Amino acid sequence: MLGLAIACVISAVAWLYLVAAHGGFWLTDQRLPVASADPADPADLADPEPRRWPSVAAVVPARNEADAIPGTLPALLAQEYPGEFRVFLVDDNSDDGTGALAAELGEKAARDGGAPLTVVPGKPRPDGWAGKVWAMAQGLAALVAVAPIGQEPDYVLFTDADIAWAPGVLRDLVASAEDGDRAMVSQMAMLRAQTAWERVIVPAFVYFFAQLYPFRKVNDPKSRVAAAAGGCMLIRRPALEAAGGLEPIRGALIDDVALGTLLKRHGNRIWLGFATEVRSTRPYPSLASLWHMIARSAYVQLRYNPLLLAGTIVGLLLLYVAPPAGLIGAIIASAVGHGGPATGIAGVAGLDGWVFMTLSYVPMLRFYRLSALRAPGLPLIAVLYAAMTADSARRHYSGRAVSWRGRAATL
């Protein structure tokens, strides 16, 4: 019991730090900044928006997305944006007719006054490039190639084929970037949480991501923490060009975090927050599909380092499992008459840690419109994540390649 008591004390202290001093990671208050008006300028008071709306080009990597794009691409093409806007969809060697369907949707949108769509046929991936990053690079090259010299788009919007957009999102993104002199404005798309397993895994997935990359720290220019969310990344094109474009992150399997890190390291301001008007329509109907989604990148995030893997698994168990184990163990020990000082410490520290953990998870559950009664079950979800992380390493060492939309991401 002494060992468990020590573990519980360590966990309780760690939770106290995380809740009080880790960038408010557990809050969901980082929402898209609203453009501010200059009170000294009557024109700004009347309309606190850019006097000239910058040009924007969206790049949509798409591989075998015929099921998704009918429900997402029309909304992207119909964005209510006052400036010049066009979309480049990269058909990354799909075999389900994605490119032809996208072209058809683009023609229909054009008849309705939507943004122009260019379907870019994917080229073979060079050695050293991750699959999705290569698709993004082809879209970036295409948007530059079609623009007259000196008239390239001011911003590039990287998004995914499964992202559904509310009508005014692009306008708000650009206004926020311009108002705050931000080189990147990224929003964490609201993931689908409809099936039983999605409601268990998805909120925790976002919670763990925010714990790893606290959004407030990402948004603080003085902090070295950097990240982004790949479903919605508006980037100032000259800033991306000055940072070397996508070449420096060509092999990145977690492209969004790599891109946010690249831009921030070059002295740019970046911003990451939560969104309700940018939603992922990607379904994960079973535990197996969710397991694959997480396991394909967990060991990548740990840089294929066995020591980091071991530390992560031990850390998950210490942080999330020790508190309930200590409390339950103390209750059982006391009931059978084996209580002692260590038992009392384990019980009190375990209860404190479990309470901190539970309370910190409630805002995320509320964000996903789920009951706060789910929060005490976070330790069980953490065990699942530990198993997924271990399985990610197993897949790596067994030679099973990480894949993007049914294809190996790297050679």
General description of the model:
With 411 residues, the protein is an alpha/beta fold. It folds into two domains: 2-23 and 302-393, no CATH class; 42-284, Spore Coat Polysaccharide Biosynthesis Protein SpsA, Chain A, CATH 3.90.550.10. Helix content is 50%, strand content 13%. The chain contains 14 helices and ten strands. The strands form two sheets. Strands 3-2-1-4-7-6-8-5 form an eight-stranded mixed beta sheet, sandwiched between helices. A two-stranded antiparallel ribbon has the order 9-10. Helix 4 (98-111) links the parallel strand 2 (85-91) and strand 3. Helix 1 (2-21) runs parallel beside helix 13 (341-367). The longest helix is centred in the last third of the chain and has 30 residues, at 306-335. The model is unreliable at 42-46 (pLDDT under 50). The chain crosses the membrane at residues 307-336, 342-362. This is Glycosyltransferase. It comes from Trebonia kvetii. GO terms for molecular function: transferase activity. Keywords: Membrane, Transferase, Transmembrane, Transmembrane helix.
